[in-house]
Design brief:
This protein is of the alpha/beta class. The protein is about 30% helix and about 20% strand. Helix 2 (about 85-100) packs across helix 20 (about 470-480). It is globular and about 70 Å long.
């Protein structure tokens, strides 16, 4: 009789992760992954990405041993090496570059939402480089950064209490399961909310459910948010006690909002003025209202003005830190991520060398780089030369904007190391490739980087394949070789014990607690503690922004590429391009190797309206070419009236493992061949325009 066992763990099949699951083993072989109905966040939810993880464990493209480049960069020729040789070589190169060019000449990088990220920051801070490149400039960090400047952590929807109005802005959790909350929580909220407002250029499931759908032009979020503020202020719908007792700069904001009447905003956003007025009245008039915001806000030149305008709406209506509103959750009872990452070990003179720090002051506050400053340093040696880069779980050639420029930078880089689970187009550009474990193959403390107040255990389910290591072990062993042995560990569990020390428990106990630990939420904390600004009040006009030379009040700037450009340009590229919409089957560029995930989504899709398609003789299912001033790519047309005739939406993250090394088809359908990385970026954060670019679409013969 077979022995069936279950191991509770935390799924990381997507970079956001956080769903509690039971891994079912039959005589030690993993046969099934089930959702944990008792998990306080995911509540039994599980998606096909989790189930697909079983089939990916032994995939032919799995990296199973360290390798060093045997031919020219990008040829895909490799020699196997030992872990000792790999780490010794990396440490020696890093020490050389530090001595010759300073620690800042070495850049670290990682993909979205990795649980190992604070281990990387720990190593980078000890080594002395201020340069850490992440996807955060276009994903979550802008909202965190502006919240921090205003004196609090990012406010999240309080899904534990019902909403009278739920506004879902630039977010589609049914496909993305973003960060702190997964789709199941939104599902429950949509059934309970009296009114739902959707803000999205595309007709998503949420837009179909909404009482009001604000179908804005991509890249115009800030103008729309200011239009809502205009109505709320003009009609006196704001919470007067909140504004008078706990805020500053409201009169200045009211004066700025005068420019954004519903009629003026309609011309910018294409949203009818009547709908703007209706949405403002619903949101401000609800007893409990919350805004579920997503990366749609982060992908354009106005990303910070859009984010702070939504914060302004939360505060002026009294829905900030209120039950059923947007709440700043109390941190978990564990070592703070910044403390764990040893940010205090990075000398001030090194912090001052952060690439782009002279331009993107808000980015400095969160210590992350926008990628284009790294490419500048590699290709042009501005402001100094970057000689080496170590990236973990990040397929740069597919995920980073202006992919041709990324390729040129990686070719020129003196020394490039990457760690991943699979061979990808990016691993083929490296000098040394390190094999990493999947989420099923190692222990860990989950959600240490999130803001919902929870920590969960991640228990190892199966043995690592080949010689694969957990990323945190790689950082620890590399740190020892660089002379920081006292700051690292011989066993991973020792680091977990350090994280959990403030909670008064160790890893051995924590790993048996599937529901994790959490600090209970508290509401309206500002009534006792105030905000972080002058006089402990919320600032509608941000003094720190003025000190940095930015506009202290939110505004709107037309994207660098838009229908407002000169006629010749718009004639060549008449359609507004939006990218970055999440695909339920995949996370970023991950999962394209899976037969299960590709079965019902085999091809890259571009959504185009029937009118725009007919004008180009395009039928549903046709292959088309989409082009911009920077490049072109192939997609299959999905003709739908759920998008404006003047807009197209293209999927991102596409490459084709089945096409083989070394390129794996990364140039075929990579929308980042079309995106821009230097023009039209947010002035405070350096965030780049994944949304609100111009393009042309043509049928392939």
């Amino acid at each position: 009789m077979n022995a069936i066992t279950k191991i509770h763990t935390l799924c990381r099949a997507c970079g956001h992760g956080g769903c509690g699951v039971h891994a079912v083993l039959d005589d030690g072989k993993l046969v099934r992954i089930d959702g944990d109905k008792d998990h306080p966040v995911s509540k039994g939810y599980i998606c096909k990405k989790a189930r697909a993880a079983i089939g990916l464990l032994d995939h032919p493209l799995r990296l199973r041993q360290p390798m060093k480049r045997a031919g020219a960069r990008g040829e895909g020729k490799w020699d196997p090496i030992s872990w000792d040789e790999a780490l010794d070589t990396i440490a020696a190169k890093m020490a050389q570059f530090k001595q010759e060019s300073g620690a800042e000449s070495v850049v670290f990088g990682h993909g979205t939402g990795r649980d190992f990220q604070h281990y990387m920051y720990r190593l980078a801070n000890l080594f002395g480089t201020p340069n850490i490149m992440t996807p955060g400039h276009g994903c979550y960090l802008p909202r965190i950064a502006i919240s921090n400047v205003l004196g609090f952590d990012i406010p999240l929807v309080d899904y534990e209490n019902p909403q009278d109005c739920l506004m879902v802005w630039g977010s589609n959790p049914f496909n993305s399961n973003p960060d702190e909350y997964v789709a199941v929580n939104l599902t429950h909220a949509l059934t309970r909310a009296k009114k739902v407002i959707a803000v999205d250029p595309r007709r998503t499931r949420i837009a179909e459910r909404a009482d009001v759908w604000l179908q804005l032009r991509p890249g115009t979020d800030a103008a729309l948010a200011l239009g809502l503020a205009h109505v709320i202020i003009k009609e006196g719908l704001y919470d007067r006690a909140m504004v008078e007792n706990f805020t500053t700069g409201f009169d200045a904001l009211a004066q700025r909002a005068e420019r954004f009447s519903p009629e003026a905003v309609e011309k910018i956003t294409w949203v009818p003025a009547a709908k703007i007025i209706e949405a403002a009245r619903i949101y401000a008039g609800a007893g409990r209202a919350a805004i579920q915001w997503g990366v749609g806000l982060d992908h354009n030149i106005n990303c910070i003005d859009g984010a702070r305008s939504l914060l302004n709406l939360m505060v002026m209506t009294g829905n900030f830190d209120a039950p059923g509103g947007n709440v700043v959750f109390t941190p978990f009872p564990a070592t703070h991520p910044r403390e764990f990452a040893l940010y205090g070990e990075l000398p001030a003179q090194q912090k001052a060398k952060m690439l782009g720090g002279d331009r993107y002051k808000l980015g400095v506050t969160v210590g992350r780089l926008t990628p284009h400053v790294v490419w500048d340093a590699i290709l042009e040696h501005k402001p100094y030369e970057v000689r080496a880069m170590l990236t973990f779980a990040s397929n740069l050639l597919v995920i980073r904007e202006n992919a041709n420029r990324v390729y040129e930078a990686l070719k020129k880089l003196e020394f490039f190391v990457t760690a991943d689970i699979f061979r990808t187009p990016t691993t083929e550009m490296a000098d040394i490739v390190l094999p990493a474990t999947t989420w099923l193959e190692h222990d860990g403390v989950g959600d240490h980087w999130k803001s919902h107040g929870y920590l969960f255990p991640r228990n190892q389910v199966v043995k690592p394949r080949g010689e694969a290591w957990p990323d945190i072990r790689i950082f620890s062993e590399l740190g020892k070789r660089l002379g920081f042995a006292e700051h690292f560990w011989n066993e991973d569990a020792e680091s977990f014990d350090l994280m959990l020390k403030p909670a008064g428990i160790g890893w051995d106990k924590f790993r048996t607690m599937p529901q994790g630990i959490r600090t209970p939420p508290a509401y309206r904390k500002y009534e006792k503690n105030g905000f972080g600004g002058p006089g402990r009040k919320f600032q509608f006009s941000i003094e720190k922004y003025a000190e940095w030379g930015y506009d202290p009040l939110p505004g709107y700037q037309e994207p660098a590429e838009s229908p407002a450009r000169e006629k010749g340009f718009v004639d060549r590229f008449p359609l507004v391009l939006t990218t970055g919409a999440r695909i339920q089957n995949f996370f970023g560029s991950e999962g394209r190797q899976s037969d299960l995930l590709r079965a019902d989504h085999p091809d890259p899709l571009i959504e185009i309206h029937p009118q725009a398609a007919a004008a180009r003789a395009i039928s549903d299912g046709d292959w088309v070419t989409i082009s911009s001033p920077r490049g072109a790519a192939r997609f299959r047309a999905k003709v739908t009236d759920g998008i404006d005739p003047r807009v197209v939406s293209a999927e991102f993250g596409w490459w084709f493992p089945e096409k083989g090394a070394p390129e794996f088809g990364w140039r075929d359908s990579n929308i980042n061949l079309l995106t821009e990385d230097r023009e039209g970026v947010d002035p405070g954060m350096g965030s780049t325009p994944f949304k609100g670019l111009q393009c042309q679409v043509e049928r392939l013969a």
